[in-house]
């Protein structure tokens, strides 16, 4: 930014003192920034000897270029006669351009080298995990298992930190979603690996126990491989990833091409357009061939598919005529044909969306009681092999239904991250179903085994958790379809805080029962309405990257997940999850208050006292919420009172946020209208530099997956039975 200002500087015969000072200030700012950047680069070089030489050369080049720019912009003394021979930006513009090019290339080189180091660290960490996993597979005694699993847990924690930072830094939302999915698998599988291995050690001759354990190891290896694929941006054997095309993305692309005919009649062929429609209609067969699609939906989809072909034929006919002669009547006919084709595709999109989401809603409602899982646990403990076989068949049917549901939802998910979430859910049901069956068979063969019972519980919990996540996913898909959340990526993969509490003496997290949910429903609904208000206020801001907007959006997303908790849905499963979420929400509010104070420093308007007053209110509310969320309680009644207090305080903060956002937006608009209510921001500020150097502080928007959960596994290992 600063370099662009220098390069674009226009030479003028008259140079005011203000101009000269500004140029010098920019040059000094660039040099100062380079100096700090290079210091970090040199520290990285000293820690990584294999790249030390390359990194050092790049740092030296960058420092030299920064100093050259500072010298060429040292123009404050130009009004003195003795400085006429001094070379400056005014006498040597090309010198500044050369120095700027050298600076940008050397800075890029430092960044690339640093990135290579990060990738190497992740690969090395993955290799350690794989090596320890191989040892875990071969152990034959509890004592040996305890020692190796302790080491494995520590290595997984390190891998979690590294990949969490990497996920945070990814700009590609698709890669970010894939990384989140892989890391979620690793988190869940760590606990599965513990109980499955213990079961295998307790019952070494049991085939179903061995199958169960092998499945966990295989899934973890696949997840580790996918993380490395994302980090290195490559696939084994040089294969290219072929992403399946969804109906939504196909229709979107098709409509863009059709509407493009208004601007250019010759930019694509009719064969191209026909092929695109054929691909879309082929995908609709996933719906029409599905045993779970209702007769009514199937008929409507077939009817709309037939209509789409007819509309395209009519469009192509008018289009070909218009290419030969552009008469007014033909162009009007073309416009009508374009509108009718797009309308037909919109109706088809609406129909498949309705088919997929209604099926999902029905299935999730039907399976919400988890009757099959409960029956498997009971019959397993009874040692009733015949009944277990009967219920495993029912679970297999349920699995097929849920897998089909995920496939259909993927077609209508609307965004790439949600598509990937659907694929991840499909994989989870595909893999977890057979693992539950093998765990249940093991328990039925050894009904008195506590560890076999615990193992089945762990796999059943993973299934229940995924079903609960599907409710959240369905709501997200509907929000995108109805335009409530659009392409915005909210806290979909929010950490599940309650599971990661490192305090082993903490009370067991509990869920709200139906009666408690009913009591708190009104408060939850108010919270939901406030999140909608905040979202609509943030959308009014032209600058979506503004710090105030980003903190506001973050708070809204977290409040929305707390609202879902009051309905028994979403990613917050237990009261402990909610309390931890409230702490994060309060921390985000504190950051917003800091941003408001910084903003008020630039304001010399009548609204400044009001802005500061509201910011102070926010700080006070954040402190109160933090105290409430961290307060220790015992007993069901006290826990519910704490839940109620946390949501009430969150609602009050959201109400205040609804008042703050329009106030700040108004001040910014006044400034743009020329009322000069904002002081001009200085081009360089020390506090901004300090903020930049703290980019890797622990206060991140997204936390690493289950690090504390993994640490718990490592700590709990001391409680392993050693018989």
Automatic annotation (TrEMBL):
Q: What are the GO MF terms of this UniProt record?
A: actin filament binding
Cross-referenced SUPFAM superfamilies, in alphabetical order? alpha-catenin/vinculin-like
What Pfam families is this protein classified in? Vinculin (PF01044)
Which GO biological process categories is it annotated with? Answer: cell adhesion; Rho protein signal transduction
Subcellular compartments: Cytoplasm
Cellular component GO terms, alphabetical = cytoplasm
- Record's keyword terms, sorted: Cytoplasm
Q: Does the keyword Lyase apply?
A: no
The UniProt entry lists the main location of this chain as cytoplasm
InterPro entries this protein is in?
Alpha-catenin/vinculin-like_sf, CTNNAL1, Vinculin/catenin
Hydrolase is among the record's keywords = no
Protein family: Belongs to the vinculin/alpha-catenin family.
Name the UniProt record assigns to this protein? Alpha-catulin
Species annotation: Thinocorus orbignyianus
What is the phylogenetic placement of the source species in the record? Eukaryota, Metazoa, Chordata, Craniata, Vertebrata
């Amino acid at each position: 930014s600063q370099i662009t200002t220098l390069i674009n500087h226009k030479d003028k015969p008259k140079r005011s003192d203000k101009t000269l000072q500004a140029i010098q200030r920019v040059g000094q700012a660039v040099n100062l920034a380079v100096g700090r950047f290079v210091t970090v680069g040199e520290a990285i070089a000293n820690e990584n000897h294999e790249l030390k030489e390359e990194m050092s050369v790049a740092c030296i080049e960058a420092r030299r270029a920064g100093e050259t720019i500072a010298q060429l912009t040292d123009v404050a003394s130009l009004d003195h006669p003795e400085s006429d021979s001094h070379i400056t930006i005014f006498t040597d513009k090309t010198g500044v351009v050369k120095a700027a090019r050298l600076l940008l290339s050397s800075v890029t080189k430092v960044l690339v080298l640093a990135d290579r180091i990060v990738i190497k660290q992740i690969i090395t960490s993955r290799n350690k995990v794989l090596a320890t996993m191989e040892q875990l597979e071969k152990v034959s005694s509890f004592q040996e298992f305890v020692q190796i699993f302790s080491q494995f847990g520590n290595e997984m924690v390190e891998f979690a930190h590294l990949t969490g930072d990497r996920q945070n830094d990814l700009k590609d939302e698709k890669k970010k979603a894939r990384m989140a999915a892989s890391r979620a698998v690793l988190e869940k599988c760590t606990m599965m690996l513990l109980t499955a291995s213990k079961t295998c050690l307790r019952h070494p001759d049991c085939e179903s126990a061995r199958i169960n354990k092998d499945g966990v190891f295989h899934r973890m290896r696949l997840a580790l491989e996918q993380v490395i694929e994302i980090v290195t941006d490559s696939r084994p054997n040089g294969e290219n990833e072929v992403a399946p095309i969804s109906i939504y993305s196909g229709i979107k692309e098709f409509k863009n091409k059709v509407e493009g005919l208004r601007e250019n009649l010759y930019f694509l062929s009719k064969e191209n357009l026909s092929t695109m429609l054929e691909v879309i209609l082929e995908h609709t067969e996933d719906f029409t061939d599905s045993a779970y699609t209702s007769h009514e939906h199937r008929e409507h989809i077939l009817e709309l598919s037939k209509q789409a072909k007819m509309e395209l034929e009519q469009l192509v006919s008018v289009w070909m005529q218009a290419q030969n002669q552009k008469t007014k009547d033909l162009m009007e006919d073309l416009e009508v044909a374009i509108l009718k084709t797009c309308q037909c595709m919109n109706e088809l999109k609406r129909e498949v969306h309705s088919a997929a989401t209604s099926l999902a809603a029905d299935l999730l409602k039907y399976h919400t009681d988890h009757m099959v899982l409960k029956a498997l646990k009971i019959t397993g403990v009874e040692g009733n092999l015949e009944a277990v076989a009967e219920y495993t068949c029912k679970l297999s049917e349920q699995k097929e239904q849920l897998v089909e549901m995920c496939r259909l939802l993927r077609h209508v998910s609307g965004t790439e991250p949600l598509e990937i979430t659907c694929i991840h859910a499909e994989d989870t049901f595909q893999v977890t179903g057979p693992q539950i069956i093998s765990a249940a068979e093991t328990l039925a063969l050894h009904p008195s085994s506590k560890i076999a019972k615990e193992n089945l519980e762990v796999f059943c919990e993973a299934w229940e958790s995924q079903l609960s996540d599907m409710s959240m996913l369905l709501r997200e898909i509907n929000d995108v379809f109805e335009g409530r959340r659009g392409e915005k990526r909210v806290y979909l993969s929010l950490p599940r805080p309650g599971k990661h509490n490192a305090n082993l003496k903490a009370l067991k997290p509990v869920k709200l029962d139906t009666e408690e949910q009913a009591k708190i429903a009104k408060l939850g609904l108010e919270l939901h309405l406030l999140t909608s208000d905040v979202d609509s206020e943030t959308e009014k801001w032209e600058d979506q990257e503004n710090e105030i907007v980003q903190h506001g959006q973050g708070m809204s997303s977290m409040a929305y997940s707390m609202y879902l908790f009051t309905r028994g849905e979403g990613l917050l499963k237990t009261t402990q999850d909610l309390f931890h979420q409230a702490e994060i929400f309060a921390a985000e509010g504190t950051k917003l208050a800091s941003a408001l104070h910084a903003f008020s420093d630039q304001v010399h308007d009548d609204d400044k006292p009001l802005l500061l007053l509201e910011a102070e209110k926010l700080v006070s509310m954040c402190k109160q919420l933090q105290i409430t969320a961290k307060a220790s309680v015992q007993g069901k009644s006290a826990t519910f009172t704490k839940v109620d207090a946390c949501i009430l305080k969150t609602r009050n903060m959201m109400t205040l946020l609804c008042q703050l956002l329009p106030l700040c937006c108004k001040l910014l608009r006044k400034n743009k209208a020329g009322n000069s209510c904002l002081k001009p921001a200085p081009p360089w500020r020390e506090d901004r530099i300090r903020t930049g150097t703290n980019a890797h502080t622990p206060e991140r928007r997204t936390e690493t997956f289950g690090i504390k959960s993994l640490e718990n596994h490592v700590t709990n290992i001391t409680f392993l039975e050693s018989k």
